[in-house]
Amino acid sequence: MATVKFDGASRIYPGNDTPSVDKLDIDIADGEFLVLVGPSGCGKSTSLRMLAGLEEVNGGKIWIGDRDVTDLSPKDRDVAMVFQNYALYPHMTVADNMGFALKIAGVDKGEIRKRVEEAANILDLTQYLERKPKALSGGQRQRVAMGRAIVRSPQVFLMDEPLSNLDAKLRVQTRTQIASLQRRLGVTTVYVTHDQVEAMTMGDRIALLKDGILQQCATPREMYDNPANLFVAGFIGSPAMNLVTVPVTADGAKFGNHTVSLPRERAGDGGSSLIVGVRPEDVEVTTNNDGLELTVDVVEELGADAYVYGTPTDPNIKLEGGDDNLVKPFIARVDGRQVPEKGGKIYVYPKSQHMHVFDPSSGARLG
Amino acid sequence: MALELTAARPDPALLDLPWRLPLEEWPDDILAALPRGISRHVVRFVRLSGRVLAIKEIKDDIARREYEMLRNLGRLHMPAVEPFAVVSGRVGMDGRPLDACLVTRHLQFSLPYRALYSQSLRKGTATRLIDALAVLLVRLHLAGFWWGDVSLSNTLFRRDAGAFAAYLVDAETGELRNRLSDGQREHDLEIARVNIAGELMDLEAGGLLQEERDPVEVSERIMTRYRDLWTELTSEQLIDDSERWRVDDRIRRLNEKGFDVDELEITTDIDGTTIRIQPKVVDSGHHSRRLLRLTGLDVRENQARRLLNDLEVFSAATGRQGEDEEIIAHDWLASVYEPVTRGVPRHLVAKLEPAEVFHEVLEHRWYLAERARHDIPIQEAVTDYVATVLPGKPDERAVLGVDTEELPVVADGGA
Ligand SMILES: Nc1ncnc2c1ncn2[C@@H]1O[C@H](COP(=O)(O)OP(=O)(O)OP(=O)(O)O)[C@@H](O)[C@H]1O
Ligand SMILES: Nc1ncnc2c1ncn2[C@@H]1O[C@H](COP(=O)(O)OP(=O)(O)OP(=O)(O)O)[C@@H](O)[C@H]1O
Ligand SMILES: [Mg+2]
Ligand SMILES: [Mg+2]
């Protein structure tokens, strides 16, 4: 049994005023694939290294199974950092490449052979065990390298951006491999990436960090459907969710002359505006002056669908997530057979059952 | 996208290299066939404007990071290869983008461990390599560098008066901190241990390991050597107030190991009976700095130790111990060192560096004297060495013709 628990765990680097990881609470189930994701500098690597014993914990605790490992040295934790910089040895067989580190650890020959064969079986490498790495394809070599970590049979696998060396196509291929392998092995895994697509496709659950603070920890579906706050809403999903500040009246939120009614719990504290989030696929598009008016800038044809990128005609309506130099476009997905003209006007409003509402001052999800 | 060159002192000739070709396809006529260690990336050497450069094809952000890291290590005076440039924005003939390249200067007279093993080796080479790596790792750790990928392949070795001096060649995974925790240092050490064992087992499997020693056992040496040196350099020591000479003793011990103590913390207990000392800042290169000051010769630590010993002998033999040591050093240089190193004919200068030749000639003289059972004048030793020993040695300024392996661990679609 290897659950992992971050229990209010904090890390302040010497010389910094603010914690790089701030009271992190995550419960990871046995066999779960948890992805730590977030923008550069949010504290992903630091969190992972706290779990590995490579970064001191200044507050809170870390548990692996029912052991408090907070003060244990890395090698007493039974975790394996996978895949960072393995080398393959040209004169050694695939079996030896996978098993040699066990020899150093004093594991006896019979046991090494057994573990290597088991790993080879899972990795589809059985028939190559006596060959040299040169005789393998690139993908098979990569699996041999994974085998090196698997034979150690640790309680937890830790991976920090293991695909950052690969080009886009190989990343996609390899991440599928890692995810399916992890499911077959059933070893609890914590995986760090800055790429939300990678996080969404690989993780059983995702923990999204910003400035060292956990924003939300949930399944990919839950993150997508019910983002806990503005930051999560903007980070998860590609293309990103449209986030617009709109006026509210007693009747609801105003998209141009279109009013979307709001249940009481989503109407906020009675202020005069709210931030409404709507994913591109949840946008209702009309041409009859019903909704927020957009000027169409670009149409991206994808076959069955098309994405329309537009700018609100009213210069006072701004989208969240843009910066001073770059006005963020409003994105809507439309039927590929009925795309609007570039330069033309369209009108948009959210499908009310797929609308997200956020408090403009705190950014928290309402209702 | 345009080709972009990042360099402190850019050499325009760099732009003439065939950047539109993947590094693997560069034509042989511009390449220098020097040996390399095991690597995942494609690495090639080229001759350019009279120097040899090492080029590694790697992703842009990683190339830049490694370039910066090598520069920082240079500023900290750590032994590492010298970064030269990053070339990015490369586009192939088919218009598709190519990975960036990190360009470093080829470290002259450096030997990757695999090249050493293809020569006939002196006994104990593996342990001497590991000893050199242990010193390098301690120095890097003292400077706050957390390597992350310690191995023989990621280290280059230069001869150092019969021993070796180690240089870092691959900083891709490294990080600089103010100081490293024990867990971080142990992590590096564990990685070193596993990699060294793997590298030696590989040589063994390839029939290249001439010694019959268990690679696992040999690899253990990195841990003991590292820990001993770390303790010697950093540990706190309690001294009785009546034994103050022990403070000097500690400093002298560190000097013998090649380190200068730039800062020593000394505290006395409240009752004043014990003194607590702990080195705070230590700097390697004790002997080489001293030799540099006396003679202007810039050589490695063990070579310097050897030369200084010979200088001592010279000063005793000429009965001048009381005199100003810089003047003696000057005379020694003119009458002993230079005649020896100048005794190497031009066509043999690429074999070994001058200080290493000097060291070998001293060894050779000792060997000749033992055989002849009487002293041998240095000139005679040089003549014999140059005639009988040196020609048989490989050119080590840039060792040629050793096979090297590259095992890219990336999927090629056949996954
Ligand atoms: N050794 C250190 N000393 C001081 N501050 C540090 C140190 N290492 C990291 N930090 C700071 O801690 C914060 C979190 O860093 P961390 O490396 O964990 O982020 P990350 O999410 O992994 O980022 P990236 O995606 O860039 O790897 C950053 O603000 C970083 O500047
Ligand atoms: N400046 C240099 N001078 C001499 N040799 C060099 C230099 N740069 C690289 N090499 C040789 O090339 C080899 C590979 O370089 P390097 O270790 O940087 O590649 P890598 O692909 O990052 O390796 P790894 O697989 O360990 O990540 C080294 O082992 C070394 O022998
Ligand atoms: Mg990181
Ligand atoms: Mg390397």
Could you list the spans of chain B in which at least 5 consecutive residues all have pLDDT below 50?
Answer: 410-415
Largest interface, C-beta closer than 8 angstroms, per-chain residues? A-B, 42 and 44 residues
H/E topology pattern of chain A = EEEHEEEHHHEHEHEEHHEEEEEEEEEE
Q: Main beta sheet of chain A: strand number and arrangement?
A: 6 strands, mixed
**DSSP helical segment count of chain A:** 8
Structural class of chain B: alpha+beta
Rg from alpha-carbon coordinates of chain A:
25 Å
For the secondary structure, the number of strands of chain B is 12
Small-molecule binders here are: adenosine-5'-triphosphate, magnesium ion
Strands side by side in the biggest sheet of chain B: 1-4-5-3-2
User: Beta-sheet strand percentage of chain B?
Assistant: 15-25%
Spatial strand order of the main sheet of chain A: 6-7-8-3-9-10
- Helical content class of chain A: 10-25%
Describe this structure in words.
The complex is a heterodimer of chains A (367) and B (415). Chain A has 367 residues and is α+β, with helices and mostly antiparallel strands. Helix content of chain A is 23%, strand content 31%. A six-stranded mixed β-sheet of chain A has the order 6-7-8-3-9-10, with helices on both faces. A five-stranded antiparallel β-sheet of chain A has the order 13-12-11-14-20. In chain A, strands 15-19-16-17-18 form a five-stranded antiparallel β-sheet, with no helix packed on it. In chain A, helix 2 crosses helix 3. The mean pLDDT of chain A is 91. In chain B, a hairpin with a 2-residue loop joins strand 7 and strand 8. By secondary structure, chain B is of the alpha+beta class. The longest helix of chain B has 24 residues. Chain B is built from eleven helices and twelve strands. In chain B, helix 7 packs across helix 8. In chain B, the strands form four sheets. Chain B has a five-stranded antiparallel β-sheet, with helices on one face. In chain B, strands 10-12-11 form a three-stranded antiparallel β-sheet, with helices on one face. The site of one magnesium ion has 3 residues of chain A, from helix 1.
